[in-house]
Amino acid sequence: MTIGWHFNNTYSKLSDTFREEIKPVPVNNPELVILNKSLASELDLNFSNINKDELSKIFSGNSLPNGSNSIAQAYAGHQFGHFTMLGDGRAVLIGEHTTKSNKKYDIQFKGSGKTAFSRNGDGRAALGPMLREYIISEAMNGLNIPTTRSLAVVKTGENIQRETALQGAILTRVASSHIRVGTFQYIAARQKKDELKTLLDYTINRHYPEIKNSNNQALDLLNLLIDRQCNLVVNWMRVGFIHGVMNTDNMTISGETIDYGPCAFKDTYDPKTVFSSIDQMGRYAYCNQPVITKWNLARFAECLIPLIDKDQDKAVKIATETINSFEKKYEEKWINMMRDKLGLFGLEDKDKFLILDLLTWMHEKKADYTNTFCHLMDLAPKKDKLFDDNDFINWRKRWEERLSKNNDSSKKSLELMRNNNPLVIPRNHKVEEVLKAAEKNNLKPLNQLIEILKDPYTQKNDIDDYQIASNSNEKYQTFCGT
Ligand code: AMP
Ligand code: MG
Q1: CA–CA distance, 328 with 339 (Å, rounded to integer)
Q2: Atom 23 of ligand 1 has which residue's CA nearest to it?
Q3: Which ligand is nearest to the CA of 92?
Q4: Closest Cα partner for 401 from 442, 353, 443, 470?
Q5: How many angstroms separate the Cα of 227 from the Cα of each of 144, 212, 295?
Q6: Ligand 2: distance of its center to the CA of 366 in Å?
Q7: Got the DSSP string for 285-322?
Q8: Whose Cα sits closest to atom 8 in ligand 1?
Q9: What is the 24 CA–ligand 1 centroid distance (Å)?
Q10: By C-alpha distance, which of 319, 84, 46 is closest to 186?
Q11: Quick one: which of 8, 248, 374, 457 has the most CB atoms within 10 Å?
């Protein structure tokens, strides 16, 4: 019985400009920590007959599957607004696996050793951050938000040096591709139109075949990405997700969330929430995410200028107008998303005030974002005196009045809310708790948390403990020194 890998490595067939051919650097003593069996089966892969030793070799890159052809991809990026040449400095793409239904997925090892793009880094990753990416990416998938996935984590058996010595680890990341805004920036910076056209054609073939025959492929691609990224950031806002490092190299052309570094879900509602210790200016704060999405899309548009029109001035004009469509699209999608969260059908002008007044109340009272919506669905983990507040009671009256105008039944309204308001999110204190245990070889809490996060919209008996926000007032911070 074979595992079922089917590699067909189209990206590695592009010219040297796009990638370096390189193998993962073997590790001392790999040990499998976690394997995502449900994802494996979605990928038509079967690991059930492979023993743990062999799995450890496979997911550390010590033993590469037949048909793989590993590469480090070149890319650039605006990091906190500054342009830099980057590339896979600690990751290799081992190949593109094709499922039986002909879907193609990048299989990437993150933490796999030095490459031509490592700059001063060691090419390695630590266990905590790799498990963190596993938890949060799988939680995003459970929330029905486009994301890269996590197939496995192994410990390398080697320590890596950060502020202290940490256990090394490798994450197997699965993505519909790793083409980023930064990939286009890297190629555009070389100012060779044929290379840019190669990347455009490749991207359209892989992700947007519907515009293959269009008259202005570059412009159509820009419009499609605006839509995808707009949907993505609206989804993040819906569940209170803060990416933390929305650099252009961390924005995919597929529209999947990528690169879970210093990210987190917020508990109390404060639009200025920032978790990342390196984001001193709050550039990537919760409320800035739509603005930054637009900013990143503008950097993408700049790359496409030579392909939008031969006349540069005309191309710039078209691209600018296209980018400026973002706000209106976002506002419309955002308000509809909030309507869904409140179970409102139809459109009423006053909805905007109803929504903003609730958010203002939550902000003033430091209410928990997720649990406020749980309260409105009668599914809060515990009774909270906060909701006895007069302002809230008055708001609630207005909400109920608006609900009564729904032509649809209250059952349908609740269903809409239930589909849009998660009961569980990866609470920061829970994530920290399970990571600490995992670092000491206790994997039970990790597996339990991942199980709960698979189905976040369904009410179950044993989830209370996962719904309650931490009562610690300490400011939560996540670190990028991963
Ligand atoms: P990230 O913060 O993971 O998005 O990474 C930003 C850039 O830094 C990418 O080019 C990474 O490949 C590179 N990088 C991050 N950590 C390391 C490391 N330990 N060694 C080499 N390169 C790294
Ligand atoms: Mg990155």
Answers
A1: 17
A2: 89
A3: 1
A4: 353
A5: 17, 18, 14
A6: 32
A7: -GGGHHHHHHHHHHHHHHHHHHHH-SSHHHHHHHHHHH
A8: 89
A9: 15
A10: 84
A11: 248
Q: Virtual CA dihedral for 23, 27, 29, 35, nearest 10 degrees?
A: -50
- Residue 451 CA to ligand 1 center (angstroms) comes to 29
Instruction: Please give all residues whose beta carbon lies within 6 A of any atom in ligand 1, as ranges.
Output: 86-90, 117-118, 121-124, 250, 259, 261, 480
**Per-residue pLDDT, 188:** 98
The H-or-E segment that residue 334 falls in is: helix 326-341
Closest residue by Cα to atom 13, ligand 1, is: 89
Provide the pLDDT for residue 470: 81
The closest-lying atom of ligand 1 relative to the alpha carbon of residue 480 is: 2
Residue nearest to atom 11 of ligand 1 (CA): 89
- Output the pLDDT for position 472: 62
Known catalytic residue: 249?
A: yes
pLDDT for 482 equals 59
pLDDT of 319: 98
Regions of the chain short of the pLDDT cut 50: none
Which one is catalytic: 249, 259, 267, 279?
A: 249
* Res 148: pLDDT: 98
Residues with Cβ < 8 Å from 186, sequence gap 6 or more?
Answer: 74, 75, 76, 85, 86, 87
The Å distance, Cα 465 to ligand 2 centre, comes to: 33
| Tokens 């499998």 -> residue | 32
From 90, 124, 130, mutation site for ligand 1 pocket: most ligand atoms within 8 A of C-beta:
90
Which residue puts its alpha carbon closest to atom 14 of ligand 1?
89
What is residue 475's predicted lDDT score, i.e. its pLDDT? 73
Structure tokens at 211: 């515009």
**Given this model, what pLDDT does residue 474 score?**
65
pTM, to two decimals: 0.97
Q: What is the pLDDT of residues 437-481, one digit of tens each?
A: 999 999 999 999 999 999 999 999 989 999 998 866 567 777 655
Ligand showing the shortest atom-to-Cα distance for residue 263:
1
Residue 268 has phi, psi (to 5 degrees) of: -70, 145
- Spacing, Cα 454 to ligand 1 middle (Å): 29
Nearest ligand for residue 160 CA: 1
- Residue 229 sits at the vertex; the CA angle it makes with 226 and 234, to the nearest 5 degrees, is 120
